[in-house]
């Protein structure tokens, strides 16, 4: 099937999906979960093929781990679908309804986007997760997964579609692009006529390729060069706990801390404590000259370090003389993902919240909380780092749009 | 100045603009309005140059009219800025604030986009209008107007900047790209690092070019192939009034009616009345075979007519046997702008509102109401026909984004 045919099929069922109602959608999700479990043997066998190929081609251990499915992981995917079924349905809510002087009543109603495209890497669990969120929000989804996970994805999608079909629901609610030709992916990115939004999930290279090539509106997700600023009034223990958590609790994620900004007044006392705490996880600290003169173990930072998302046990560190300098440094180098201040000063907290330009700005908490589950959305399709449509963690609501509904009794425009 | 330099200058002042506060922004708008008026002679002289050139190159009367400035039109531009000053400031509103079980308080706050780019045709009034809305919503704006209006735009921007500067506010809140080279415009469209959103305002060709070339997130505005469906229970007089209004009150606009869908049961009685009413404005009706057999004056429609936005005294007309057929025809050919049903049947009204996929769906009212002023926003930067970020008329609120602000007291992620 060509990409255009896939697009057409998805578009064709948007009318049905848009008015399915929560009950039927939840039945579909439950049935999909059930069939996913019953397809386990086939899915694991398909995954085995992907793994064999990946190992032969020398894929690194981290990527192999993300690619690998187990009985437990398939169970987690099925549970994920059931959790989404349990979430509130965002569709149909009338956000506002107002009367106009001419007697028109104008309401704004939440409706599905229509067709959502998702381009992602070789993580087969995304296949089921993305389907669940798109389906619950009334959207058809077209998936283009990493080619290293192709066999796994084909098997997963086959069983999800069986589940839908068994529940009397359109199988084409989920479609997978199986052609791994790069030109096909490019064609997908230009399917504006059929796809309403394209969400890339993956590393910076993937996201850049989508942004550069897509004519479909894109929601950029991803990179986080997140800072923690320790001001001159910070509680040292709180600062150490938060930095340790934000840097080391999970290193490969976009909301991990990558850079510290420390007020000059506390640097001589704080930096040795910081070094001690971070050495528990052997974190390398790349610091400016002033910081290096305080702690000799620090590695001198280069200009490049300020803008680097390490996703590793490495941190950059800069000393500043004022909150103004801190804000200006962060706004210059951050990717506008998640930024935190550790302070006990009211005015500094307010200024940081107001003046830092980021999706999530924290006072006295770890940047690791930028997450759909932690924010209480019950789900997450990604974390938007752009300003259009959605900013920060995206749940079901961010997969919807609105339409105006207008009730009249014969009004014409004068 | 290169486009990149312009982008950098805009980005540099976003921090200041974001926290200016309503009072200073309103002072800036009032000062800009005052200086616009005091620059009248210079602006009119510049406009005269544009008009001379346009007439020599044989520009048509409609476009000349849109290009032409008069003392009155400059007055209207200044009044527009004062009206925007009088609107509520959307910035700083906290849309929601919730406590999480771990003690974090998570709020969502409305903030400016940052830098807004606008690409438009030779309509110098857009220059002041767009500036007013962007400035009030805390954004820096970069304008690229049609080259036929270059002299006029340079003069207008000069006086608006004087007004800002006089009020002690950053002149670079409004910048104009004066290089008319197409490559420069393309470069502008790829300035993702500095521009947060790009809004094209103009005809289908301009919008297509922006969508195809931009890497900046785009809000597509514009084309409207708007339908009115007259069902079998419609009040004929109401239907005639609404169709007449929607088609003829102003023909060159995106919310004008371009196509009618008539239920078969009422066609024999309704079509002769329709023909009579629309002949008052000599509207040409391009109809399907069945309709042509009822009214011999109708012109046979081709497949192309169903998808055409005429922006002229022309309408297409199709007869259908059911509301299902009507909905399916409209969803197939509409541009998802504004669609109306004329009915006295409750179930038909509800089905139309639920199942038509468009920015604005009307029951018993003219499609001409899809407009920021008519919707009560007090302003309009355009009408979005895409689903991402904003759908339908866009006012000040649609020029904003949000950021999460999180208040903690030492929380780390377990």
TrEMBL record, chains A, B:
Entry GO MF terms: glutamate-5-semialdehyde dehydrogenase activity
Primary location group: cytoplasm
EC number: 1.2.1.41
Gene3D superfamilies in alphabetical order: Aldehyde Dehydrogenase, Chain A, domain 1, Aldehyde Dehydrogenase, Chain A, domain 2
Enzyme class: oxidoreductase
Keyword check for Cytoplasm: yes
Keyword field: Amino-acid biosynthesis, Cytoplasm, NADP, Oxidoreductase, Proline biosynthesis
Family matches, as HAMAP family: ProA
Matches recorded under PANTHER family: DELTA-1-PYRROLINE-5-CARBOXYLATE SYNTHASE, GLUTAMATE SEMIALDEHYDE DEHYDROGENASE
Family: Belongs to the gamma-glutamyl phosphate reductase family.
Annotated protein name in UniProt: Gamma-glutamyl phosphate reductase
Species of provenance: Lacrimispora xylanolytica
């Amino acid at each position: 099937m060509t990409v255009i045919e896939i697009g057409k099929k998805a578009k064709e069922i948007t009318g049905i999906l848009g008015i399915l109602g929560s009950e039927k959608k939840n039945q579909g999700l439950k049935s999909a979960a059930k069939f996913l479990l019953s397809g386990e043997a086939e899915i694991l066998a398909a995954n085995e093929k992907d793994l064999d190929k990946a190992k032969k081609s020398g894929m690194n251990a981290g990527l192999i781990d993300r690619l690998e499915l187990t009985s437990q992981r398939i169970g987690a995917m099925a549970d994920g679908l059931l959790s989404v079924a349990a979430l509130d349905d965002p569709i149909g809510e009338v956000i506002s309804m107002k009367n106009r002087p001419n007697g028109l009543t104008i309401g704004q109603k939440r409706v599905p986007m229509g067709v959502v495209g998702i381009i992602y890497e070789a993580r087969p669990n995304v296949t089921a997760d993305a389907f669940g969120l798109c389906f619950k929000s009334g959207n058809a989804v077209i998936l283009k997964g990493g080619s290293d996970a192709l066999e796994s994805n084909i098997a997963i999608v086959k069983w999800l579609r069986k589940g839908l079909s068994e529940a009397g629901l359109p199988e084409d609610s989920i479609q997978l692009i199986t052609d791994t030709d790069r030109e096909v992916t490019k064609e997908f990115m230009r399917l504006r006529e059929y796809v309403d939004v394209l969400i890339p999930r993956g590393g910076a290279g993937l996201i850049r390729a989508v942004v550069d090539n897509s004519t479909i509106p894109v929601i950029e997700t991803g990179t986080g060069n997140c800072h923690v600023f320790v001001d001159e009034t910070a509680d040292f223990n709180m600062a150490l706990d938060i930095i340790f958590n934000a840097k080391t609790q999970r290193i490969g994620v976009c909301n991990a801390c990558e850079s510290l900004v420390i007020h000059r007044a506390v640097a001589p006392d704080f930096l040795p404590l910081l070094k001690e705490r971070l050495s528990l996880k052997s974190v390398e600290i790349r610091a400016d000259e002033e910081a290096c003169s305080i702690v000799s173990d620090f590695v001198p930072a280069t200009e490049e370090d300020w803008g680097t998302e390490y996703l590793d046990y490495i941190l950059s560190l800069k000393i500043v003389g004022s909150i103004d300098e801190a804000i200006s440094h962060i706004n210059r180098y951050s990717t506008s993902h998640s930024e935190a201040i550790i302070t006990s000063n009211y005015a500094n907290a307010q200024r940081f919240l107001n003046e830092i330009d980021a999706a999530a700005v924290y006072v006295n908490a770890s940047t690791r909380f930028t997450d759909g589950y932690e924010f209480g959305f019950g789900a997450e399709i990604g974390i938007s780092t752009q300003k259009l449509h959605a900013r920060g963690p995206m749940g079901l609501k961010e997969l919807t749009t609105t339409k105006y509904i207008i009730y009249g009794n014969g009004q014409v425009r004068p």
